Amino acid sequence: MSDSPHRRFNPLTNEWVLVSPQRTKRPWLGQVEEKKKIDLPHYDPECSLCPGNTRASGDKNPNYENTFVFNNDFPALLPESSVSQSVRQHQLFRQEPETGYCKVVCFSPRHDLTLPDMSVEEVETILNTWTIESETLGARDDISYVQVFENKGAMMGCSNPHPHSQIWATSSIPNEPAKELASQREYFQDNKTPLLIEYTKIEKLTAERLVASNEHFIAVVPFWAVWPFEVMVVSTQQISRLADCTNEMRKNLAEIMLEVTKRYDKLFGVSFPYSMGFHQAPYDGKAHPEWILHSHFYPPLLRSATIRKFMVGYELLAMPQRDITAESAAKVLRELAV
Fold first, then answer.
1. Strands 100-106 and 145-152: what pairing?
2. Which CATH superfamily groups domain 43-83+93-334?
3. Dihedral sign from CA coordinates of 135, 137, 133, 288
4. Active-site residue list
5. Which end of the chain is less crowded, N or C, counting CB atoms within 10 A of the terminal residue's CB?
6. Helix 247-268 and helix 120-138: axis angle, to 10°?
7. What tens digit of pLDDT does each residue of 271-306 get?
8. Helix, strand or coil for residue 168?
9. Which residues pair with 18 in a beta bridge?
10. pLDDT digits (tens, 9 = 90+) for 303-314
11. Burial level of 313, CB count in 10 A (0-12/13-18/19+)?
């Protein structure tokens, strides 16, 4: 790949990213995060997510033994909205009600057990919980999309270190899935095959951006990656939701998620922060042969555990920009021994 500036196209969102490999040698005099060794206890009596503790809502957690799901005590969405759909001033001032549901999924009763520290069986249990909750919420008449996501680490805005994820179900399809839906649908109509199935075939063949793979999934630093060590996990089979996974597929998915997160922790020797989420087909009552199940890992760390990537200036006002190429990032991750 060239060391000269160039831009790469993201066919999932129809957007471009600027790649500037020549900038990797620049000195860094910006913000440096403090590298902290965090030793968390198995149980924290002050933690609102630990078993048996009382949350801000006044509800007491059960003494759960694996995953624990509850309605978010401070939800961003509510089942009803009093907002009017009418245009009050001008067509440029549009608003409409947005309703939905927000749930929290604790990974385990252990306060100190992050995803890469868990067993394959434990991650399978989490995947199964995400599946059940997605299908239950998606079956509602007032829901069109279900977003499963995890914010790991204070750097990514996580307000409680007890490992957990969230599920937001919305009456409309949010921006990012809507862009991916339009792109995948157009590609499927034009080529009679799903975009991401074609993509996985090419990535497995070239292997230069491959981080890990097994029978049913690949983990790859996408050609159009924005974040320095961004990874996308994609099904190599034509499945569109977590619920479409067979037991074998779910095990393969758990294994590859562990491979990715263990490599992250190994990279800079810290519990690696990231935002991760699954993009499943919409729950809008329509068939989606174009949609392939995949997840995105967006980690902020750039050069070390203390230097992170900032999305500012040009990124906010023009387009995303990255310094290290997707190929070099994948090579670093791939060669880590885990």
1. unpaired
2. HIT-like (3.30.428.10)
3. positive
4. 164
5. N
6. 120
7. 999 999 999 999 999 999 999 999 999 999 887 887
8. strand
9. 7, 321
10. 788 778 888 999
11. exposed
